[in-house]
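Before relying on records like the one below, remember that each one covers exactly one chain. Contacts with other chains, cofactors or solvent are not represented anywhere in the record.
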Amino acid sequence: IEAPKEIKGFKEDHDLTQVQLGKTLNISQRAYSYYETGERSAVEIICDLAEIYQTSTDYILGLVITPNIIEHNKKRNI
């Protein structure tokens, strides 16, 4: 199973570590690593990551190309 590349990319873009994100998500660094590498399904944390990064779950899943939820919603007139 391949994890969405945005999971690792967002972590790097926000200068965060797996340890920091694990603490934020109330999981261990090792558990977070499994999500990032695709060893476990990231579905369980997609919503939490979207909230942390202030983006849409659609972007994290690669369904839209606009990363910012506010910009995405403006284009949809929400």
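The mean pLDDT is 82.
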